[in-house]
């Protein structure tokens, strides 16, 4: 599997590091569960209203590192198994951190990044366009994510020790492809000639060790969409990069359950905008360098994109280009979807002309002005989201641009999905600006989908093709040029220790959120059974590569998310008095599928699957399910069910 290969090469990158850095920091890593309601809530990513959760394949986690230099400058970075990040979440996480730590953490030095899995519950972004396919805001999703993101940073803070940081790179081939190659070809031939591939193939890793060289964690950045599971998937999953993280953590946390153990391994998003993992097409269901500079800094600025007017140097024309932003808008090709997830209507990629019928529908929601239409050319506007205000803001207008500097590594936290060439240009721009202002060579990492989500960013040339990514570049043809301008200024200011204006803060919208999602009314069970009753017991014996399936009478999993716990355990008998947990609902080998059997009476059942892998030890096993049911007259009550034991034979 491609994700297995990524994890293997991350291990290779770890092995390529040699020697200890002379520079020391305080470093800490942490992890926390952020699994939201696994059933009856739509997933975020494909915008498919039919993609409603039915259970869990893997739990999803937030993984954090905290670094502090000798001067007390501190940065915190979190990679979360989520579609993306929303600023409402960041604002809440900062609030909780400041309640505990005062001003130690703030907007400037905390970055929250999503891995871009399309298989986790939505309803946390607080902008209507992104929550509309989820049927609105989901407080349960928001709360578990906010608390988990906070806990990951808190645990990393609690785990701070004197340590060192290393940088490594390796090349990973045959795990990603460019899903919009015709757009990529719009970029100048002389620029494309500088690169061997039309996607980035380099995995970049930051490794954290203590002064005894004990490995604490490894954070990896690689450009690939987390869409190995397509829009037919109904089970919560961290997808390919999440699976790679689980494999990496399993290697360094032996005999620990997924999501447990001291070592934290993360695979973070980068410039993945036009990059697909589906190298065979969509289907249904080197050497290491020290960070040798003893400094860590951060800089942040809010930018009002529609009202941005500036200029940027165009290295191709060798002229200064004036750039301006547009009111947010989505183009026709946005509705066409991608090869990873096609759209629901007959829209086509590359559409540069409009349609009277769809314009009528558009104008009923919010009509673009003639200035908007001209500003976005050649994009035909399907949704004038910047003009839509009911019931609240549809897409952000103010974005979060942030840089974190750790030694000679700069992490550029971008609020969207940069395409391959857009990311390459930004890296080069930041590297050049750091050299000009600070006189040092830096390694620049693009951290995508960070702090707030504003869809895509393509190069000006790619914008002309108006494929999905260009149609979803919401601030118009100069979007990328604006980011180039802003990040160049931020880089120079950071290298010179200059302060920048904070910019206008995004609006506070917590008190205007709407939702069509309903809560759990009550749970019931058939006569002569009870909650936890094992309706379908396992067979007496199984072999390697066979699948165990058991069924319980259950309550609704939304009654209790079992955060940092599990809905079930697969247990192996050690002796007459002791059973040991072998697998949980966070394990790749297991699946939990919930379904209603009688909506009126509130009946439901839970199917638990365990695929017996070749690594499974032979012996006697049983499966335990834990849950809560909601009583019709009020209150929630725990229950538990246990299967009879069964045997797994030696291969």
Features:
nine-stranded mixed beta sheet, glycoprotein, 651 residues, Immunoglobulin-like, secreted, EC 3.5.1.23, 2 domains, alpha+beta, eight-stranded mixed beta sheet, metal ion binding
Description of the structure:
Helix 1 crosses helix 7 (239-252). The protein has two domains: 25-303 and 399-453 and 481-512, no CATH class; 533-648, Immunoglobulin-like, CATH 2.60.40. Strands 1, 4, 5, 6, 8, 10, 11, 13 and 15 form a nine-stranded mixed β-sheet that branches. It is built from 13 helices and 37 strands. The protein starts with a helix and ends with a strand. Its cofactor is Zn(2+). This is Neutral ceramidase. Zn(2+) binds at residues 116, 225, 417, 456.
Short description:
With 651 residues, the protein is an alpha+beta fold.
Share of helical residues: 10-25%
**pLDDT below 50 for ≥5 consecutive residues: which ranges?**
17-22, 283-293
Question: What general outline do the C-alpha atoms trace?
Answer: globular
Domain module tally: 2
| β-strand amount | 25-35%
Largest sheet: 9 strands, mixed
Determine the number of helices (DSSP H or I, runs of at least 4 residues): 13
Mean pLDDT metric: 92
Family: Belongs to the neutral ceramidase family.
Cofactor: Zn(2+)
Domain Neutral/alkaline non-lysosomal ceramidase N-terminal: 25-296, 297-484
Subcellular location: Secreted
């Amino acid at each position: 599997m491609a994700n297995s290969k990524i994890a293997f090469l991350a291990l290779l990158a770890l092995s390529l590091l040699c020697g200890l850095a002379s520079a020391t920091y305080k470093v800490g890593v942490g992890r926390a569960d952020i699994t939201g309601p696994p059933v009856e809530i739509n997933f975020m990513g494909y915008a498919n209203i039919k993609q409603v959760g039915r259970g869990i394949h893997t739990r999803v986690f937030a993984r954090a590192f905290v670094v502090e230099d000798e001067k007390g400058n501190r940065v915190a970075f979190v990679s979360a198994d989520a579609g993306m990040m929303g600023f409402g979440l960041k604002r809440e996480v900062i609030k909780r951190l400041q309640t505990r730590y005062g001003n130690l953490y703030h907007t400037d030095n905390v970055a929250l990044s999503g891995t871009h899995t399309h298989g986790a519950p939505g309803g946390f972004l607080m902008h209507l366009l992104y929550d509309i396919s989820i049927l609105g805001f989901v407080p349960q999703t928001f709360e578990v994510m906010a608390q988990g993101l906070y806990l990951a940073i808190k645990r990393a803070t609690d785990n701070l020790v004197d340590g060192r940081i290393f940088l490594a790179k390796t090349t990973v081939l045959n795990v990603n492809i460019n899903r919009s190659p015709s757009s990529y070809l719009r970029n100048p031939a002389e620029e494309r000639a500088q690169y061997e591939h039309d996607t980035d193939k380099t995995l970049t890793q930051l490794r954290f060790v203590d002064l005894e060289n004990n490995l604490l964690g490894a954070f990896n950045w690689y450009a690939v969409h987390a869409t190995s599971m397509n829009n037919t998937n109904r089970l919560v999953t961290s997808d390919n990069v999440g699976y790679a993280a689980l494999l990496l953590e399993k290697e360094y946390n032996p005999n620990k359950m997924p999501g447990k153990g001291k070592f934290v391994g993360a695979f973070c998003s980068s410039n993945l905008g036009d990059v697909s993992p589906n190298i065979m097409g969509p289907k249904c269901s080197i050497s290491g360098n020290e960070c040798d500079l003893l400094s860590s800094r951060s800089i942040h600025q809010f930018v009002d994109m529609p009202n941005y007017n500036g200029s940027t140097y165009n290295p191709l024309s060798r002229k200064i280009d004036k750039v301006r932003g547009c009111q947010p808008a989505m183009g026709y090709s946005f509705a066409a979807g991608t090869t990873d997830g096609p759209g629901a209507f007959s829209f086509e990629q590359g559409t540069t002309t409009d349609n009277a019928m769809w314009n009528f529908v558009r104008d009923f929601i919010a009509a673009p002005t003639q200035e908007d239409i001209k500003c976005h050319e050649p994009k035909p506007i399907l949704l004038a989201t910047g003009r839509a205000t009911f019931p609240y803001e549809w897409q952000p207008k103010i974005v979060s641009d942030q840089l974190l500097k750790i030694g000679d590594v700069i992490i550029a936290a971008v609020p969207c999905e940069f395409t391959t060439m857009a990311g390459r240009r930004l890296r080069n721009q930041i590297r050049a600006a750091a050299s000009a202002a600070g006189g040092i060579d830096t390694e620049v990492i693009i951290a995508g989908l960070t702090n707030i989500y504003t869809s895509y960013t393509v190069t000006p040339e790619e914008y002309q093709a108006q494929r999905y990514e260009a149609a979803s570049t919401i601030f118009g043809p100069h979007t990328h040029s604006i980011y180039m301008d802003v990040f160049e200024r931020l880089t120079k200011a950071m290298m010179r220790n200059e302060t920048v204006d904070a910019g206008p803060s995004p609006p506070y919208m917590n008190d205007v959120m709407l939702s069509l999602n309903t809560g759990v009314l009550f749970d019931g069970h058939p006569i002569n059974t009870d909650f936890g009753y094992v309706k379908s017991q396992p067979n007496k014996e199984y072999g390697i590569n066979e699948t165990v399936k058991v069924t319980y009478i259950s309550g609704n999993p939304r009654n209790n998310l079992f955060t940092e716990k599990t809905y079930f355990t697969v247990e192996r008998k050690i002796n007459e008095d002791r059973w040991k947990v072998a697998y949980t609902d966070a394990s790749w080998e297991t699946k939990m599928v919930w379904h209603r059997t009688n909506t009126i009476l509130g009946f439901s059942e839970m199917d638990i699957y365990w695929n017996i892998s070749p690594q499974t030890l032979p012996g006697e096993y049983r499966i335990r399910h834990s849950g809560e049911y909601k009583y019709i007259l009020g209150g929630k009550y725990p229950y538990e069910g246990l299967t009879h034991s069964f045997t797994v034979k030696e291969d």
